[in-house]
Amino acid sequence: MPVKIPDNLPAAGILESENIFVMSETRAANQDIRPMKVLILNLMPNKIETETQLLRLLGNTPLQVDVDLLRIHDKESKHTSIDHMNNFYRDFEDVRHRNYDGLIITGAPLGQIAFEDVVYWDHIREIIDWSQAHVTSVLFLCWAAHAALYHLYGLKRKLLAKKRSGVFSHQRSKHYFPLLRGFDEEFYAPHSRFAEMDVDELKAHPELQVLTESEEAGAYMVLSRSNRNLFVTGHPEYQKATLKEEYQRDLGEGLNPDVPMNYFRNDDPTQEPVARWHSHGSLLVSNWLNYYVYQLTPYDLDDMSAMTPWESDGVVK
């Protein structure tokens, strides 16, 4: 089934060229089904690139998904035109009265800034708090995962001496969770961040479960026992060239970055990168949308109290 997006969104042409099924608002209006309503809070600088990456994953699921794009403020973006933002993005005041099946909050280039010093920190906290009553399940990515773990559970991240960048091997810490169905015992995922969470603190927290982790990159997928919040500390949405572009940007800005680990062929940045995570990224989002959104959400979004309960081991009652 397709992901429904605005008629003229730039991502539509890109996704259609990749044979990913997208549907315009006009066509979707003639269908008599209950689609999943997913809100995306896009905090990344290049809005079009990130929205395309996420829509690519959402468009690879068997469910029809209606997507609303949300911005954190109405200030002009350095990398995205104000016309694009005004045409396709909503402000929080436009959606705060609504309920959604799912919410995705992206990463942000704020890894070395204290949360309280982020100019929109209060607004982020407000949206996270709102989501706990108005969204069936929330997927937090990278910086947003660290921010939400701090805001919701008081867990502090540890700043790293150098940026953690590369593609890392991960293993399952838990088994038989719906979110992990189809996962290999070892899989790969990209990371690009300046901080990490303490794995032992996460495992010791009574409200959290570490589902997958990496010896090199730490905890990767962390799920709240309520199943409402999924924290993913990496970037399953990244495309093949994304880490390369970040590395070249950092070089150009004189930041002397390390070469992303396990990414370029033979670890040589003059050679092509190797993408080893796309199937995992698609499976992660498909499982989240199916088992933690579609299977739990009420048919009537106005009645969030009708959510299907789960057992503590992730099995539907």
Automatic annotation (TrEMBL):
GO cellular component: cytoplasm
Keywords: Acyltransferase, Amino-acid biosynthesis, Cytoplasm, Methionine biosynthesis, Transferase
Gene3D superfamilies: 3.40.50.880
Protein name, as recorded: Homoserine O-succinyltransferase
Gene Ontology terms: biological process: L-methionine biosynthetic process from homoserine via O-succinyl-L-homoserine and cystathionine
Keyword Cytoplasm found: yes
Organism: Shewanella colwelliana (Alteromonas colwelliana)
HAMAP family xrefs: MetA_acyltransf
